[in-house]
Structures are given as structure tokens and as C-alpha cells.
Amino acid sequence: MIHLENKIYSLYIHIPFCKHICFYCDFPKLFLINNIVDKYLKTLIFELQKLKINHKLKTIYIGGGTPTSVKLTLLLKALKKYVDKNTEFTIEGDINDFNKKKILEFKKNGVNRISIGVQSTDNKILRHLGRAHTKEQIFKKMQLIKQYFSNINIDLIYGFNELSIKKLRHILKEYLSLGVQHISTYSLEIKKGTIFFNQNKKEADDKLVCRQFDIIFDTLTKNNFFRYEISNFSKKGFESKHNLNYWKNKEFYGIGLGAASYVNGFRYKNTLSMTEYLKKNFICEREKISLAENKKYYVMLNLRTSQGINLDEYKKVFSEDFFEKNKEKIKYFIKKKFLRKNKKNIIATYDGSMVLDRIIMDFF
Ligand SMILES: C[S@@+](CC[C@H](N)C(=O)[O-])C[C@H]1O[C@@H](n2cnc3c(N)ncnc32)[C@H](O)[C@@H]1O
Ligand code: SF4
User: Is residue 265 part of a domain?
Assistant: First the structure.
């Protein structure tokens, strides 16, 4: 039987606006047009209230797009009743949008985690990616942000030919000098509809991607960062609770353009059309998650984390023994050094984490 928690404690809110469009970005985003922002935020608050949440949330994540590109005052006010001192409340932003006034407004409303799309500290690479900020701006603004926040993530993008090993090592050194607690890494994907795709740019080959990731892993783990999920590194105690909720296959609310949610055994996807969204036609896909799919999600997501699959929890959720049921396959992957097992958990090894899709395919 599927064990569902009766309350959902995580909320994702999507703000799709950006002041510029990066050459590689395939996320739901729109060029910032001021005259629809107000209407969007009001519709978003309507969607929030429709959820009828009547308890405090453990995590809130305002992501984008670029949430800091717009005035969030009304939204922050509407969220206040769900926030207490235990809520992990993250806002994602562009380094250049941060100023003292904005920061103080965030603090006043319970925001306690900041995620910044730094991507690189190399000005040539930043220009290549179509980012609007420079290395000098990153270092300057980070000093200000660090005066007010002690839980900060920065994103790092890799996996492209223009990033030499020498440059990557230098960027990592500079990332470490920024003194943040969390680093999310993204391997560049060239997707249809992006500027890079139209320019016929190619992704780096797997060998280079793995070589670059090896260097990222070695450098960060030697400097007190812990890889708690395949692409995410943090100092101890600074893992993102919001993202762990996804990777633990727990349910979550998601509101805003293109947002995903997982509620009462259904996975939903919101519309990507702003016109439809503003008409309050929010949901465009709805899928009932069968028991078999739920098991697949559970295994797939948990294997991304450093804790892996907790066998006791699996038994509690699905009333069956994962190890007994998959003994031969697990033994095969352990022999191949793709999985390891301790008393309570099945965990992907470093090599296993590079071929997770293949492992999952074999299980299901
Ligand atoms: C959608 S963005 C939101 C953060 C913020 N807008 C920013 O970039 O400053 C979240 C992350 O997705 C990454 N991303 C977007 N498109 C990508 C792609 N095609 N390949 C790899 N990462 C991508 C970005 O690098 C970014 O760090
Ligand atoms: S990467 Fe971030 S800032 Fe750039 S276009 Fe995408 S959402 Fe906007």
C-alpha cells in the first residue's frame, strides 16, 4: 500500500521573468515585461490561496526565471502565515538585483536561504553563456549578501568545450574563496528553442563532461564540501531541505507558470502559456501515479542522494523488502561497483552515480 503523508510541507513558486535571456536556458522563462508582472503576481497569490494550506511549511522555494527581477512584496506578505522559524525559505536571484533594501525585505519576511545563478567567475565564459554579470560584480555583491545571509547557494555550469581544465580549476578556487555553504552544479545541455541550439552549438562529449566533473568533485570534497546529491555539494548541515524533499519522493505543492507539483498521489504540470495562466487555467497535465511508478520514482530519486535507498523506509512505504525482491540485480551492481550496501541502505557509488539511468532501467 502506498503510504502518503496527510500533509504537504514543501512549496515551490515559479517567477518566470528574466531581464535577459541566457544563450543556453531551457527553463520556463519570459523576457521581463513590467505590465504583466502585477497581474501575474496576483494570479499566483490566487493559486496559492486555492491550495487552502492551513499549516506552517517546512520549505518554501521561490525559483525562476529570476525572482529578484520583480518586486515580491505582495507575494512575501501572502506567504508570511506559512513561515515560522523552522521554515527553510529560499529565494533564487541574479547577483546584480541584490541591494540592501531588497535584502532587508527578504529578511523581514523570513527568507533565510539565497540561491544565486553565478554560473562561472570567468568573464569570457560568462559572456559566452550570455550572462549579464561579471566576475567583479559577483565578488562585490557577495560581500553584501554575506553580511545578511549565512546559507547561500551558487550555481556552477560545466560540460562545454570552451571550459578548459585550467580555467575550471581557477573558477573552483574562486568559488571556494566566495565562502558559500552550497554549490549546485549543472552540466550544459543544448536544448531545442535555446540560442545555443539555434547557433548549432554542441554539448561536450561524455569523456570531457566526466573529466570536468571529476575535478569539481575532487576540489570540492577536499574543501569540506560534501556531495549529498549527484549534482549538489554542501557544507555539513547546509543541504537544501527543499530539494531533499523532492529526492526523497515526498509530495510538494508547485505554483506558477510551468510549475510541477505532486499532491495526493497525482503529479501535475502547470501550463507554459502565460495567456492561459492569467486566465487561471493552471493545470495542463495530470497523472495518477500507480504503485509501480511510485516505486520507480522512489528508487530513482533516492539513489541520487548520498543516503541512497533506506531499506526500512522502503518497507514501511511499500510493504515489501526491496533487497529481497531485487537481490540478484543488486548483487550484480555491487559486483560491478555501481552500488554498495550497508545494514540499512543501498547507495550508488561514484561510478554508479554516473550511470544511474542505466541502473534504474535494469530495475524496472
Ligand atoms: C533556471 S535557472 C534559475 C536561476 C537563475 N535564473 C539564474 O540562472 O541566475 C536554474 C539553473 O538551471 C541552469 N540551466 C538552465 N538551462 C540549462 C541548460 N540548458 N543546461 C544546464 N543547466 C541549465 C542554470 O544554469 C541555472 O543555474
Ligand atoms: S538561466 Fe536563469 S537568468 Fe538565464 S534565462 Fe534562464 S532563468 Fe533566466
Answer: no
Residue 155: CB atoms within 10 Å: 17
Residue 278 C-alpha to ligand 1 middle, in angstroms? 25
Ligand 2 surroundings by CB, under 6 angstroms: 18, 21-22, 25, 27, 29, 64-66, 117
Q: Do residues 89 and 175 both lie within one domain?
A: yes
- Note whether 51 and 119 are same-domain residues: yes
Same domain for 76 and 206, yes or no, is yes
Q: What pLDDT was estimated at residue 3? A: 45
Please state the pTM of the whole predicted model: 0.95
Strand pairing class (113-119; 152-158): parallel
Q: Is 191 in the pocket of ligand 1 (CB under 6 A)?
A: yes
Domain tally for the chain?
2
With a cut of 50, say whether residue 2 has pLDDT above it: no
Query: Could you tell me if residue 276 is inside a domain?
Result: no
Residue 284 within a domain: no
Pairing of strands 30-31, 17-18: parallel
pLDDT of 131 over the 80 cut: yes
pLDDT at position 211 over 80: yes
The conformational region for residue 308 under phi > 0 = left, psi -120 to 50 = alpha, else beta, is left
Ligand 1 geometric centre to CA of 25 (Å):
6
Q: Whose CA is nearest to atom 15 of ligand 1?
A: 25
Residues 111-120: what's their mean pLDDT?
A: 98
**Domain carrying residue 332:** 291-364
- On whether residue 277 sits in a domain, the answer given is no
Q: Which atom of ligand 1 is nearest to the CA of 191?
A: 19
Q: How far, in Å, from the CA of 18 to the mean position of ligand 2?
A: 6
Q: Which protein residue's CA is at the shortest distance from atom 1 of ligand 1?
A: 27
What CATH number should be reported for the domain holding residue 358? 1.10.10.920
Same domain flag for 194 and 337: no
Q: What digits encode the pLDDT tens for the residues 150-160? A: 999 999 999 99
Model confidence at 27: pLDDT above 90: no
> Do residue 41 and residue 142 come from a single domain?
yes
Mean pLDDT across the chain, nearest whole number? 95
Nearest listed ligand to the Cα of residue 160: 1
Q: Quote the pLDDT of residue 5.
A: 55
